[in-house]
Amino acid sequence: MWYPAALIRPGPAWKQNASPLWPQGVVCHSAVGYEGGLHDVLDSNTPSSWHFSILYSGVIEQHYDTTVQCWHAQAANSFAVGIEHEGGYSPENEALTPAQLASSVALVRWLGEVHNFPLMRAEPGRTLFEHNQFYPKPCPSGRIPWEEYAMVDVVKPRRLDVASPDDQDLRAMISALANNRVTPVRFDADGKAVYEIAITLP
Question: Which residues of the chain have pLDDT under 50?
Fold first, then answer.
């Protein structure tokens, strides 16, 4: 699929796997460089490709259909969309610009909606990944504020209100949490899901 708000800048046709991609999440990357460098790598003979580049300006470039397997994160290529973010050269942990962050969050929101996956940093069910989880390098070097990504519509908080709960009520709540039938209210700084359950006692 093609993101409606993206500027289409196709990557080389040979830089993709023959098997299709059924996205189950995203991998965020830091370019450790600038727009020109991103284009140079993408257009070169280097066996590296990714679906989207998000520039400092907030402009989103799409290089491949999201149902194509690119070469950006080793084992994750078979299930995740790759998103590069301009910058991170000096310092490597450079914050995303406000426009860049807004575009990145909007893109991830769209990907979750159209490919039907929740936005989860915590296990089980993680769908939001960093390159360093698949390859021994620091990328994206702490540049991605995941707490911003969790608070999108695709993750819909639910509050369970139970008056005078008995053992059956409590077992039902635990079962709902264990089977992901209740989505988090928010995520903490470590990416762990935080749930809210209100119990009214007599």
Answer: 151-161, 178-183, 185, 199-202
